[in-house]
């Protein structure tokens, strides 16, 4: 199965352990998986990082499920062109690349809710949604 075009999909990374259950994955297509450690929290061990694609028609469902099933102190991002969704348990930020104020609000929210400071360079995902 071919990858969707950049115009058709949102791209992001779903990490094993980041969700209380992984039912959200039913609405995504995994395009790659790699093992790695979380920045600043290497002592937690290895996790599987799934590069995922979400079709436009599924993004609202993914946002809804992710905001209910993300574990506290975790986030999930999706990028499509100059737009990014940063999702936390109970909160979603919809940011455009040139919206520095909303980006800072998402970072502040993440820090206040336990996301490690080494993991909130959200702006990097605009150019590299899979975090490679």
What does this structure look like?
Helices cover 20% and strands 32% of the residues. The longest helix is centred in the middle third of the chain and has 14 residues. A six-stranded antiparallel beta sheet has the order 2-3-1-4-5-6. The mean pLDDT is 92. The chain is of the alpha+beta class. It is globular and about 35 Å long. The chain has one domain. A hairpin with a 2-residue loop joins strand 5 and strand 6.
Descriptive key words:
single chain; 132 residues; alpha+beta; 6-stranded antiparallel β-sheet; 20% helix; globular
Radius of gyration: 14 Å
In one word, what is the shape?
globular
The average pLDDT value, as a whole number, equals: 92
Unreliable runs:
none
State the domain count: 1
How much of the sequence lies in strands comes to 25-35%
* First-to-last CA distance: 22 Å
Q: Which strand order spans the largest sheet, edge to edge or round the barrel?
A: 2-3-1-4-5-6
Helicity, as a percent range: 10-25%
Order of helices and strands: EEEHEEEH
- How many β strands by DSSP? 6
Summarize the biggest pleated sheet: 6 strands, antiparallel
